[in-house]
Amino acid sequence: MSARRDAALTTLRRLGLEVDGAAAADLSEAQLDPLLDGPDAAGLAEALGEVGGAGAARALARRATGDVQGALRRTLRRALFRLQQRGVPVPAQEAQPLRVPVGGPELEGLVSAFEGNGDRLIWLAKPRAGGATLLVAAEVNEPDGLRDVRLAEVTRKDLRALRDRLQKQSGLRLVPAPWDVLDALIVEGHERAATGSASASPDRSRDYLRLRPELVHLPPIPPTEPRSPLAAPPSDDERPLLVAGSGDLLTLPELRTWWPRPDAAAPFVKEISALRESPIVLNRMQQEDRLQAVLVRAASALYPPLVVARRLEGTAYVLAETGRVAAARSALAAAGALRAGAGADEVPLLRALVHQGLGTILASEETQRQEERRGSLVLTPSEALTDPASSRRGHTRG
């Protein structure tokens, strides 16, 4: 066994893939996709170049066509070249072309994942004579619609710098998407905002139809979320397992703001606190039943299934286009389950958001209450039942 091959097997074992030389060639895409989404992607790619097989080639090729950074992209390509040298068939690495309707303008579309409040950014850029670019930057909310839209003339350098600054300062990543799909989403957002407005005339800050003729004169297509060719829709057989693992999506930076807002969670936090402090003595099963009923209602109110399904589908596109295919398919599976009628409390991702989110808020409030009551002689009913001092026998002087 060569030193390079031995080092490759050592890397695979360090990453949790207990394989020998023969078994390494049989590693599947399902085993490799989550690891290629992680921080050890470069080291794994180099190892797979030495010992991987057809499954590794497919996983590496798909990752290499995503929106990955330059150094990692070069590492992935080197690994694929090494696989070819070893005689392993490697899929063609063709970037998906931008889908432009016949007769349509030359437009570039960029979109971000959804924030926790339902907002996302959509950019449409149109090259102009002389090197300038006409940029429409829209902030669209699901489900409320268009929050803001602006038109500006920038250089390509300005556009790249703004995109990089957004990612560095806020972690917001914009990825390419078909312009006509994004145009339709902004039109949909315009119509939703106009429907919800009390004013007869549209607010200029949310009037996309006033700006749209600067970019395109074609009618918009029906609105739908962009779909990445890199992430195949989960089959009925795959969906249960992918949904079961959806709680892992909370480790992704794109979902860091999806936790419940304290103001929205306040009624449920208050209700849970009241259950805990109630003077009525309940057995453990009764307590659990009442708590579960509150959590189920909280899940449906804080995370309406169809709204969250749409947000997950939009976020899945960004995950897939940035090389995190396994996470994207998990998000699509969770969205599919919600659209099929699953309650928010039945999807591990949303259940974790509700349980952990409310638990964190409750713990914070409890700490604050304890600070306020420190040294107080007044106890709540629940404290009276649990405070050892409250059950001491009184003593009289003899």
Structural class: alpha+beta
Shape: globular
Contiguous runs where pLDDT drops below 50 for at least 5 residues: 95-104, 389-398
Order of the strands making up the biggest sheet: 4-3-2-1-5
Straight-line distance between termini: 90 Å
State Rg: 27 Å
Tally the helices. 16
Helix % is: 40-55%
Word description of this protein:
With 398 residues, this protein is of the alpha+beta class. The chain has 3 domains: 3-85, no CATH class; 108-214, no CATH class; 239-384, no CATH class. 51% of the residues lie in helices and 9% in strands. The protein contains 16 helices and 5 strands. The chain has helices at residues 3-14, 21-24, 29-36, 41-51, 54-64, 70-85, 156-170, 179-196, 208-211, 239-244, 262-277, 284-302, 305-321, 325-339, 348-373, 381-386; strands spanning 108-111, 119-127, 132-141, 145-155, 175-177. The chain has a 5-stranded antiparallel sheet with strand order 4-3-2-1-5. Strand 2 and strand 3 (132-141) form a beta hairpin. Helix 3 packs parallel to helix 5, helix 4 packs parallel to helix 6 (70-85) and helix 13 runs antiparallel to helix 14. The longest helix has 26 residues, at 348-373. The chain starts with a helix and ends in a 12-residue tail after the last helix. Residues 95-104 and 389-398 have low confidence and may be disordered.
